Amino acid sequence: MKYHSFSWPGLFVALLLLAAPLLTQAQRIAYSEPEREDNRRTNFEIIGKVGANVLVFKNNRTENAISVFSENMKLVERVKLDYMDDRWINVDFVPYAEHTWMIYQFQRRSVVYCMGVKLDQNAKPMGDPIELDTTRIGWSTNNKIYTTIFSDDKEQIMIFKINSRNPKNFVFTTLLYNASLELRSRHKMDLAMEEKNDYFTDFLVGNDGDLVFGKFLRRNGDYITQLSMIIKKVDQEQFTIKELNTGGKVLDEVKVKIDNTNKRYLFSALYYKQRRGNVEGLYSLIWDKAADSTIRENTLLFSDELRREAKGPDANIRLAFNDYFIKNIIIKKDGGFIMITESMYTTSRGGAFNRWDYNYWNNPWISPMDYYWSPYYNPWGSPWNRWGGGGSGATRYHAENIMILSFDKDGMVEWTNVIPKSQFDDDNDGLISNGIMNTGGELHFLFNLYEKRTLILNDQSIGPDGKITRHPTLKNLDRGVEFMPRLSKQISARTLIVPCQYRNYLTFARIEF
Q1: Which contiguous run of DSSP H or E holds residue 306?
Q2: Start-to-end C-alpha separation, the chain
Q3: In the record, which residues are listed under signal peptide (predicted)?
Q4: What gap in Å lies between CA 112 and CA 88, rounded to an integer?
């Protein structure tokens, strides 16, 4: 499960460059009341709007519940999920307009069960839980076995597991369901691996049911070579592997995006000229499914002007992008795309953050004793930890400028712009970075900045032409409520749910644009 993911419904993405800029309206904010069971260490997922209600899943150690909120964020009911076994491992949600599927895992003795249950707008089961699959693992410690992903249109739901018992050959089992959670196919495939050097990108499933992901070598834990695209077609019980020629570039973390409208795959990464060098630019590759080949391969070399925009006039421009990361990619209807990057780093008594020690996500060899590996083992995790990692050394989390780049369907730059900001917090990253709201005509970036020692939620937007608008301070900002916009979720065309902390409690705010 990828909690707090940075993505938008495809409907609004398609409208991004087609809709005219909307008139700025005062946002309305409604807050939920603190629930005594929830504190700042509560794990949660904003499920979304189901029927007339907003559903939020919460976990406090062994207690699992869904809070049902009305339109004005009044608590309707806190529904305890007593039918989830105490030894639960993970939960995923696939929300629809009038119901949501909850797919959860739990372990009894040496068997991990994957179950599905349909919930209504009041978080009540609409039928008995369905057993989707089981796996015998041979020991009693908790292990996340299954990963759930779904397509943009939510017509394809895929659950898969990866058996890594043989370090030279991983065995994938995929179960593909339709929107009614009816099994369409169950397939098992082998994938040859190179021990300890192989990494995976995110796993994605398209509206056609095809699975796609990337595999690459990361020698000595730092630079990327031998990038491959791996596809499992909906009706085939085998992997198709395509080697992607990156021209000898040293790549950073590789991002994959599906363009369902134009039936293309986009691979993107920041790149270097040499190992442990400076970030030089952006590499992108577009794969056309119909042509079954690469149709565009572009390299954007960051100019000195762009570097000064990204880091400021007084910074060392050669180092300008060394702490930038790709946060999101939005596919436009015409095949172009918008890329959102942000400067993020940590400092501590032990020295500044080094991005070369950062990229250990999606490495199946982090826990070599696990026979089953999941690409998203820690669902509430992130590149940072919402509440800090503990330990004896103090860590300061930094989130600075946001750079937005727009590309046309051929991967050529249309415009770039920067939203300047400077944020930091000690041993806690929940209040920094940004959240995004897509209203169709604009992308709104929400982030906290201090004003007279008070943390204020700011709103700046960018239009289809790349022009940035700074909006007035949001109205009805309650004193004492601190927003966590990075973990927010858009639930409708003009509604955003933002988690907040009030004293030691976890609460939620509904913002109407």
Answers
A1: helix 304-311
A2: 28
A3: 1-26
A4: 9
Residue owning tokens 């369409």: 184
Three-point CA angle 156, 161, 164, nearest 5°: 150
Q: Structure pTM?
A: 0.89
**Cα separations (Å) of 209 from 10, 177, 288?**
16, 9, 16
Helices vs strands, H then E, count in the chain: 2, 38
CA dihedral 153, 158, 164, 166 (to 10 degrees): -110
Alpha-carbon 444 to chain mean position: 18
CA–CA separation, 109 vs 454, rounded Å?
Answer: 51
**81-101 mean pLDDT:** 92
Residue 84 has pLDDT above 90, yes or no: no
Nearest to 115 by CA among 103, 123, 124: 103
Q: How do residues 430-473 score in pLDDT, each as one tens digit?
A: 999 999 999 988 999 999 999 888 899 999 999 999 999 999 98
Calculate the CA 460 to chain-centre distance. 21
Q: Regarding predicted confidence, which is higher, 87 or 447?
A: 447
Q: Indicate the SS3 state at residue 318.
A: helix
Task: Tell which residue, 299, 342, 292, 290, has the closest CA to residue 321.
Answer: 342
* Residues sharing a CB contact under 8 Å with residue 292, sequence separation 6 or more, in sequence order: none
Contact 34, 478 (CB under 8 A): no
User: Smallest Cα–Cα separation from 86: which of 104, 102, 107?
Assistant: 107
Distance CA 12, CA 362 (A): 29
Pick from 262, 252, 253, 174: nearest CA to 212? 174
Give the integer Cα–Cα distance in Å for 460 and 447. 9
Displacement of CA 498 from its chain's centroid (Å): 16
Share of the chain above pLDDT 70, in %: 84
- Classify strands 293-301 and 279-288 as parallel, antiparallel or unpaired: antiparallel
Q: Around Cβ 79, how many Cβ atoms within 10 Å?
A: 18
Q: Catalogue the E-assigned strands of 289-420.
A: 293-301, 324-331, 337-348, 351-352, 372-373, 395-407, 413-419
State the Cα–Cα distance between residues 484 and 499, nearest whole angstrom: 5
pLDDT confidence bin for 350, thresholds 50/70/90: low
Of 15, 27, 24, 8, the C-alpha closest to 513 is 27
CA–CA dist 307, 325 (Å, integer): 14
User: Strand 481-483 and strand 495-502: pairing?
Assistant: antiparallel
DSSP state of 357: G
